[in-house]
Design a protein that fits this description.
By secondary structure, the chain is of the alpha+beta class. It has helices at 22-26, 31-34, 45-57, 106-121, 136-145, 177-191, and strands spanning 7-9, 12-16, 62-68, 74-84, 89-97, 126-132, 148-158, 164-172. 33% of the residues lie in helices and 32% in strands.
C-alpha cells in the first residue's frame, strides 16, 4: 500500500519505496542474493519497477527503500507486511541489502527503527519474521535480533520455478522487546 512513513536513525533512513529506487536496487540484485524470494529475480530496472509496484499495491504492506542518511546511497529494501493493527500484529521482511552492507550497522539500525515503530508507535502485540528454512544467513540474522523461534511451516513457500519450500517463523512480543531493543542498541554502540 502506498504510504508516507519515513523512519530515520543511526545513519539510516527508511523512505517509501518508489520507482526512483529501481535502478540502484537492480544494480546489485542477482540470483544468489534473491534466492528464497517468491518472485523471479528483478535484475533489471524495469523488472525492479514491476517488483516495486507489486509491493506498493499489496494490502497491509509498507515497503521501504533503505537509504544512507548522509549520502543518499540506496542500500536495499525492507517492509512491514501482513499489518493488522486491529489485532496488533505485523511482520517484517521482504528484506534485501546490497552485499557491501552485510555485516555492518545497516541491518541492526533498520530493525531498531522498524521494531521501535511497531511496538512504541503502533502498540503491536506481536512482530513476526519468516525466512526460507534453507536461508541460513537470514535465519542467523533473525536469531541475532533475539526473535524467538516458533517453528517451521512445511511447504509454505512457492519459488518462481514452482518448487516448494518451508518457512521458519520467529516472533518478538512486547515483554521481549526491551531486551531486543537493548541488544540492538548495544550492537550499534559497539560499531559506532
Amino acid at each position: 500500500m502506498l504510504h508516507d512513513l519515513t523512519l530515520e536513525g543511526h545513519g539510516t533512513r527508511l523512505v517509501p519505496l518508489a520507482d526512483e529506487h529501481a535502478e540502484p536496487l537492480s544494480a546489485f540484485v542477482d540470483d544468489c542474493l534473491w534466492a528464497g524470494m517468491s518472485s523471479p529475480t528483478p535484475g533489471s530496472p524495469a523488472a525492479m519497477r514491476s517488483e516495486i509496484r507489486t509491493a506498493d499495491a499489496a494490502p497491509g504492506r509498507l515497503a521501504f527503500a533503505v537509504v544512507d542518511a548522509g549520502t543518499g546511497v540506496v542500500r536495499g529494501s525492507t517492509s512491514f507486511y501482513d499489518l493488522d493493527l486491529r489485532i496488533g500484529r505485523v511482520e517484517i521482511g521482504h528484506t534485501f541489502y546490497d552485499p557491501r552492507w552485510w555485516g555492518t550497522t545497516n541491518n541492526p539500525s533498520c530493525k531498531l527503527l522498524l521494531l521501535t515503530h511497531a511496538f512504541e508507535t503502533w502498540g503491536c502485540a506481536r512482530v513476526a519474521f519468516r525466512a526460507d528454512a534453507r536461508n541460513a544467513r537470514s535465519i542467523a540474522a533473525i536469531r541475532r535480533l533475539g526473535a524467538v523461534p516458533e517453528g517451521v511451516l512445511r511447504s509454505h513457500r512457492l519459488a518462481p520455478d514452482g518448487s516448494r519450500g518451508d518457512s521458519a517463523y520467529f516472533s518478538i512480543l512486547p515483554d521481549e522487546w526491551p531486551a531486543v531493543r537493548a541488544g540492538l542498541e548495544a550492537r550499534l554502540s559497539a560499531a559506532g
